[in-house]
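User: Structure tokens for both sequences below?

Assistant:
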Amino acid sequence: MGGGRLGDDVDKVIDEVVHVWLPKQRQLAHPATDLVLEVRRRCALAGLQLPSRTTIGRRWARHRELDALKRAALPDALKSPGSLAAKYPLEIVQDHTQADVLLVSEHDGLRR
């Protein structure tokens, strides 16, 4: 997935953290920082070159973009919830003309 100056082993660590570890972490206050720390921790334990924050951020951004494209391709994503879809002209008409309206309560006769 990388293709940069990092080795394949470092790419595998980044991919594993982004695809496996990060989705399981629901309560992260700073996911970008925690992602960088986890990748660097795993690379250091394996004796690999530590990738920069920018490199990890780019890989995460690419992952999020691909995930968004996959979700957009799903059939359920074609129509947003609560959207208005008109099949014919003037099927949905909205009038935003302001009007003076006087409401009178049936119970107590008060005007509102």
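Moving on to the next sequence.
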Amino acid sequence: MVPAVASGLLCGQPFFEGLSRHDRVFVNDPLLYFLVGRPSVTRHHEMYPGVVTEAAVQAQIIAELEAQQPELIVLFSMFEDVQEPNDSGRSSGIFVLDRYIQSRYTLDRSFGPNYHLMRLER
């Protein structure tokens, strides 16, 4: 997967590694930025429950995606079904970022069941 992401980007070009859903967050995989050797389009490269699940932060991420128009994003779904026995295990009901991604990116290919490479529709 790392070569596929790296080869799909220009040298130094940022990308976004997000989750299959952003209304409920357990953990994401920010190590991917290091492995690919490219920066994140957003300062929210580590996604925390109660932060990225909020409308204002999702709007900020969307603004950063709009400004930089990354060709590729990777959605991580390994822990999609994990539910902590606290507020982070509940949906925030905020799907703004998920809808944005669904409306502008299409699945290019998946790497196993947990990593999904999405390409910007032009």
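User: Anything stand out in the second?

Assistant: DSSP finds four helices and four strands in the chain.
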